[in-house]
Amino acid sequence: MIGLNDFMLVSVALFCIGLFIIVSKKNAIQILIGIELMLNAAILNLVAFGKYDRINNGGQVFALFAIVLAAATTAVALAIILNVYRRYRTIDPDKINQLKD
Amino acid sequence: MSLVQMMFYLMAFITLGSALVVAMGKNLVRSIFMFFVTLFGLAGLYVLALADFVAVTQIVIYVGGILVLILFAFMLSGKEALATAGQQKTKFISLHNLPALVLAALFLVVMLNVVFKADINNLPWVKAAIATKNVVPVNGTGINDIGVSLMTRYLLPFEVISVLLMIALVGSAHLSRKEPVEA
């Protein structure tokens, strides 16, 4: 069988790739993708450890809730990005630097 | 090397490789589609972690929901958004990306240290679970257990998350509506 270490290594690498995307990209949608990658790295850990909780299924159920939460977050974030684009004509987070109109 | 291990390495390679392509790609649409591949690879990894129901949920919600949502939001936001957002002149390794690269690499070093120092396979609760046979069986299905515990032990979070989904739905519809023309 595959050990827990292997899953954690994949998850660590995925998390760091997500971090790199978030810091380096100039596009709000790509930053959203980076956030999703980091979330998925966390979910992978939950699932891998959930193997050792057969009775309560803590890990797997928590992973399900995390997936649903990620879906809700993405919907709201995309709505915000569309609004920002409509108002500023750009989705570069570096160029959005005022709170009022 | 057994078949399971080979599948694990294949899935890990697909996942990490496509994630790297997402990180390196300049074209936004291409990076969205490579993200699709990453999510499929992750679903395969979930299957190998004996969580088949989570894998199916991942495919249905992430690939069927979130990705289509991102694509729609991107394609519906107009041609000029495509033109401006589609091209980026930054390369993967350039002076411009150096801070991000350094940050990610340092974080990788720290987390690898944590993983190797934690000695995960000898955690007390994992050992107790193995001793009391509280491990998900390889040849059985765990979907029954998930259904029962979702309706009994985790009933309150289940209801709360349905309310939260409702709030998110209403909120995003409210946010993305057309603004009325103000006089």
Describe the structure using short key phrases:
heterodimer, A: about 100 residues, mainly alpha, about 0% strand, B: about 180 residues, 8 helices, globular
What would you note in describing this structure?
The complex is a heterodimer of chains A (101) and B (183). Chain A has 101 residues and is mostly helical. Chain A is built from three helices and no strands. Chain A is elongated and about 55 Å long. The termini of chain A are far apart. The mean pLDDT of chain A is 87. Chain B is mainly α. Helix content of chain B is 74%, strand content 0%. Chain B contains eight helices and no strands. The model of chain B has no long low-confidence stretch (mean pLDDT 84).
Question: Brief description of this entry?
Answer:
The complex is a heterodimer of chains A (101) and B (183). Chain A is mainly alpha-helical.
Lay out the secondary structure.
The complex is a heterodimer of chains A (101) and B (183).
Chain A: H1 4-24, H2 28-50, H3 58-88
Helix pairs in contact in A: 1-2, 2-3
Chain B: H1 3-24, H2 28-48, H3 52-76, H4 79-86, H5 98-118, H6 124-131, H7 143-151, H8 155-175
Which percent bin holds the helix content of chain B?
over 70%
Instruction: Tell me the Rg of chain B in angstroms.
Output: 22 Å
Q: What is the straight-line distance between the termini of chain B?
A: 72 Å
Distance between the termini of chain A: 58 Å
Oligomer: heterodimer
Major sheet of chain B: size, sense and barrel closure? none
The tally of beta strands of chain A, per DSSP, is 0
Mind summarizing the main beta sheet of chain A?
none
Strand content of chain A: under 5%
How many H/I helical runs of chain B?
Answer: 8
The low-pLDDT segments of chain B are: none
What is the percent of helical residues of chain A? over 70%
Order of helices and strands of chain B: HHHHHHHH
Task: Summarize model confidence as the mean pLDDT of chain B.
Answer: 84
Strand content of chain B: under 5%
Order of helices and strands of chain A: HHH
- Secondary structure class of chain A reads mainly alpha
Provide the structure class of chain B. Answer: mainly alpha
Radius of gyration of chain A: 17 Å
